[in-house]
Give the backbone structure.
Amino acid sequence: MPLPFALQDNAEIARRFPDLHPAFDRQEALTEANRCLNCFDAPCAAACPTHIDVPRFIKKIGTENLMGSALSILDANVLGASCSRVCPVEVLCEGACVMLAYNKQPIAIGRLQRHAMNYFLDRGGKLPKKSDRKRAQKIVCIGAGPASLACAAELAQQGFPVTVLERRPLPGGLNTYGVAEYKLRAPDSLREVAMIGELGVEFRFGVSIEEESELAALEQEYDAIFLGIGLGAMHELRIPGAEHPDVIDALEFIARYKTAGRFNVGNNVVVVGAGNTAIDAANAARRLGASHVTIVYRRTEIDLPAFGFEYEHAKQEGVSFEWLTQPVAIHTYPAGGIASVECVRMNDDASPIPTPIPGSNFHLLCDMVIPAIGQAPLVSLLGQCRGVEVAAGRVQVDRASGRTSHPKYYAGGDCVNGGREVVDAVADGKRAGAAIAFEVVNA
Amino acid sequence: MPDAPTPNLSTTFAGGIRSPNPFWLASAPPTNCGEQIMRAFDAGWGGAVWKTIGEPITNVSSRYSSVDWNGQRMMGLNNIELISDRPIETNLREIAEVKKRYPKHVVIASLMVESTREAWHDIVQRSEDAGADGLELNFGCPHGMSERGMGSAVGQVPEYTEMITGWVKEKARTPVLVKLTPNITDIRQIARAAKRAGADGLSAINTINSITGIDLDTLEPRPNVDGLSSHGGYCGPAVKPIALNMVHQLQNDEASRLPISGIGGIGTWRDATEFILLGCGTVQVCTAAMHYGYRIVEDMIDGLQNWMREKGFARIEDFRGVSAPKITDWNHLNLNFKIVARIHEERCIGCELCYIACWDGAHQCIHVNGAHTAPPAIEATSRARIAVTPIPKLDRGVASHAVPTRVPRVDEDECVGCNLCALVCPVENCITMERVENNLPRKTWEDLVNGNPH
């Protein structure tokens, strides 16, 4: 059955966004795999939200049982390929590696995982079924991001018919639209989703669930509903001039180059905010041709919300930083283009909400402004979720099962955890899938 | 002690072979011709045993194969190469040339000819006329030559060894070394035969019969000669413990005891020193030189001298053989000696390899988290825990839950002192085996069966 999605590799983008970490060759992988101590009850596996049995898959690389290695990874995490590229391993598996306590480099777990997953996907490997039974109970997943994909895969592997509804034209969520291309190429994300599609999962694109009545209809048709809807749109810059067309939020900016190819970003780009997404956007602006990319952040370097290794990477890419700086207005040329961002310096007084220094205004010349100041919860849908309890913009669930306060609804990923990593979404989705399978059969 | 005089590495071996140091190249490809041997002497080797001279043979193409281990190349090397494929006259002419240019270095002629008194008398005479400092009788070659009644076909039969060694001794004016094959039930049987026939020394061990492996793609064994292979001789780091044991057997047996040139997995000064500590007068190296070149001898000399200086040894004889008496039969070991494992918490990195090794491979006396819990239960607990990626912005103000300690604990009452945990621990001196004083007198198995009151 041909899958209804595909994306051609864009040569220009591929040239400008080469792999951040090149793939291991066979000998490199063998040497690195053999460096692994094979810890018992390994801290790396405990740190992984999906609890991939890291020593198990690494030892299989050491014996050149790459098929077995990949299946060991997939057994815990069906998005093992994308996780191997996008996980912040420094704060997860590799950050827990005992080698660090020995004053040595941690094992390159992410790159080894990618080595095994490349072997598997290059040979058209298929996800194994967990049961030969054909189940009658139907499940629908809303959103085609990592959480829904993991939930759908778990259920399909157990023999349930699963439908995934997605408002965008392509599946994968942020894996396809939102990850820096030098970490994960959009076509590779789709290749991984295709593997889940081959389990028999049905994908429907361009389907937006906006109305309560639509949810009611889904409740009639399906035995369980999984909410993997992620977060909503990015927060808008609420300053004069922010409605200019060359003010593009970071996720929109990243999605555009990843799926539509290179576009003109101008010579000077200002990114507002200093989270991981801000850094992805800033680095991308450099690679798309901007000579000067500046991140403005209203707090200090110490408060930087991005991971430390992302900050280091941005500096290597040539991104500059303006600390204690807040934009107050965007000025345009009479001809229409953006001229500058007017900023103000902030007091360095450790107050909970930084306060501006009066009269400290200055201008940063720029052609494009990229706000990256966080995503809002998807309140529009959540507000209508039929009695599903929501607090502080997050769906409330039992963490072990993903169960919400409504017996038919389960949830996982960013809409539950407020916006963590792909691997967290996969863990949520898988736990929910297993819980749904148990519940719909035993209810 | 940088002021101490440079230790003297020169040796006199097997009744008169004077060598500037104990490091010789074994009879093998690194000693195939005079040009090579002269370069080796320039690099610092004290002697060379010329690749075995005999009636020239034909070799096959594809001759070596190796066993790699954990990403390291050539833990063991196997060869199916035969003796010299160069004419006897060429080898003898080059021996003369080398000895003329390097009179103070040792050249030993390794010999293998058909099993007649005349053939052996002839080759002995010609080798010594060429200037060889000694002769090594190759009774060990395990492949190719043995099928023709030479090599290990001689070295596996005491009577043949004694007969041919006797023929050589009738003629030889230089020391005669007999090279022993390990491919035999008791290496001492052959050594005794050689000694009875008057041999002046032994070279041990030759290579071990081996098949290194099979290519899992083609299903063909290695080394591959047109789809087929043959058993070959195994050497390299993997064989050192076997060689050390055989050297010790020979030293420990009065009827076998002769000067020994130690061979088998020697690649560093440390390896060489161990052979000398068990009694060897010289050592021979092959695989390491094939892997890295003649230059390795520089560190062998330097490292041995530094060690001798540190230990206060001025000459090789000062420490040769001193460890040999410390190897005895099992029934002489003290049954009342008790050691236990101690884990040094400050060094532990929490890999818990000692725990799983003790539970699955030893005596279940190492525990984690203070409880006597079997491995599957511990893993299940970890897998059931919900872990999330730490995100500073989201986790601000959330106390991170305490991580349980991963430092294991030894139940010293149950510990049998087997050493396994200390062997698997990747951190030096993290697990030490320490003596527990039990105030019991020394008692051996021999004491027990003899009714000794101790």
User: Anything to note?
Assistant: Chain B has two domains: 11-326, 330-380+403-449.
